Amino acid sequence: MAEQDMLRRPSRAGRRGMEILLKGHRLLKLRMDANRNHPRAHLHIDYHHSKHMASYAIDNSELLAGDGSYDRVVKPWIAEHQANLMQVWRGLRANGVDDAIVAELRGSTL
C-alpha cells in the first residue's frame, strides 16, 4: 500500500486530480497529472528534487516547455510508448487508470 501511495497520489496542485509516476530512472522522473487546464496530452520531467524541468507532448514528443537536455532520452521513450501513454492520459482525465499499463511503463527501459 505504501508503494501505491508514492506512485499515485493527489496532485500537489490541489484540486487538479491525480498524479502518477510513469517512470523513474536514476534521478530522472517522468510523471503525468490530470490537470484539466491543459488539453494537450503531455508528461512532466522532474530531475532530482527539481520539479517541472520540462514538459513533452505525447502525440509527437515535442518539447512544450523547459530544458531540452532530456530530449535524447525522453523523446524515443515517448515515441515507443505513445499508445500506452495516451491510455493513461485518458484514464487520468476520467479517473480510471489501468494499473497494468502503468506497471508496463514503469518496467520499460528508458
Offer a concise description of the structure.
The protein is of the alpha+beta class. The chain contains 4 helices and 6 strands, in the order H-E-E-E-E-E-E-H-H-H. A 6-stranded antiparallel β-sheet has the order 1-2-3-4-5-6.
Topology:
Layout (H helix, E strand, L loop, with lengths): L1 H6 E3 L7 E8 L2 E6 L8 E6 L2 E8 L5 E4 L4 H10 L1 H13 L4 H9 L3
Antiparallel strand pairs: 1-2, 2-3, 3-4, 4-5, 5-6
List keywords for this structure.
single chain, 110 residues, alpha+beta, 6-stranded antiparallel sheet, 35% helix
Shape: globular
Q: Strand-residue fraction?
A: 25-35%
Termini Cα gap? 26 Å
Strand order of the largest sheet: 1-2-3-4-5-6
The count of helical stretches stands at: 4
User: Based on helices, strands and strand pairing, what is the structural class?
Assistant: alpha+beta
Low-confidence spans: 1-16
Number of domains: 1
Q: Kindly provide the radius of gyration, computed on alpha-carbon positions and rounded to a whole number of angstroms.
A: 13 Å
Overall average pLDDT: 81
Could you characterize what this model shows?
The protein has 110 residues and is of the alpha+beta class. The protein has one domain (2-107). The protein contains 4 helices and 6 strands; from the N terminus they run αββββββααα. The protein has helices at 2-7, 71-80, 82-94, 99-107; strands at 8-10, 18-25, 28-33, 42-47, 50-57, 63-66. Strands 1-2-3-4-5-6 form a 6-stranded antiparallel sheet.
